[in-house]
């Protein structure tokens, strides 16, 4: 198959959605398909927001995947647009606020529309619908009826997922891929379109070589009980509530250490303020690793006794799989998507992400019971290997694409079926 995948960011940009896109693209390429990723020439979401060109190659091949990059500011057309006083306001009056935000927002990949309008791809898939390229892809399909698959990655706890335009965009897709059954039902409520749950995955081999003891030594964790958090240090990840919960945990056992691992550059001011406001006694029990090397990831998880991510802003939560790959029990928020991932009482616990006492209760319960921690860690590990590897996710995606291509070929009239003009 000839497959075009559209995403707002791609390597070297790193994030959950970017990694998801990378694994699917490379997985399909390894299976012999021709895969092209069309994306913004940007190195980070911040560059995208500011319209900064990343200075990357406009075209290159990475691990068998063709990568085509367009300027995030829209090039000449985009520069002209942003210089016209009142242009956005006038467009909003004509198209409405939502369409204008997605049409003229950044990354402004207007070059994507003519590119897709002439594509001969068997499949075009647009990922991460929070960003404008998904809408640009939708507009391109009005010009050329390619087979379109949506991979929206809706974060149903966030208001952007409820944009009215998504009903039209979903209905125009030949199929939609979701991360969970919860997201699938969310889509079905808005459009009568084919929906397949593919989930996300990990590469188990990347967690085989891990050394939690080395991380404990490096950061002075010793043999203390360790509660770990991995992710963007942002309020939406439940980090402030976790910090409040730890006050109760530290009253129960002052030896417990909290490890935060994730990019400092994306930390919300509220989180920074909350950390700075901790008394010295508590600050001494907090280890902020910040941004870490990919080669340290498995060892960081391995150093934990309990992994906690009480996030309201998840479409799936790949960090739970990463913790399970290292045999650790997990604690997540009691929200629809996470309830599809964590089997409560079997491989983890669910909590009210707005209730520090509920989070503290779950942490204390796991730290108090080593047998329960080990049992949940084993169950999570077995489930991850059985259901959530990138090979298994790619199997589902490839199967769907092949079925869509086959269906299109069957429905397309052959030359002999085309009525010949009478003489």
Describe this structure in words.
The protein has 423 residues and is an alpha/beta fold. It folds into 2 domains: 228 residues, 3-Layer(aba) Sandwich (Rossmann fold), CATH 3.40.50.2000; 184 residues, Rossmann fold. Helices cover 43% and strands 15% of the residues. It has 19 helices and 14 strands. The strands form 2 sheets. It has an 8-stranded mixed beta sheet, with helices on both faces. A 6-stranded parallel beta sheet has the order 11-10-9-12-13-14, sandwiched between helices. Helix 9 links the parallel strand 7 and strand 8. Helix 4 crosses helix 5, helix 11 packs across helix 17 and helix 15 crosses helix 18. 46% of the residues are buried. The C terminus is likely disordered.
Quick overview of this protein structure:
By secondary structure, this protein is an alpha/beta fold. The protein folds into 2 domains: 2-201 and 389-416, Glycogen Phosphorylase B (Rossmann fold), CATH 3.40.50; 204-387, Rossmann fold, CATH 3.40.50.
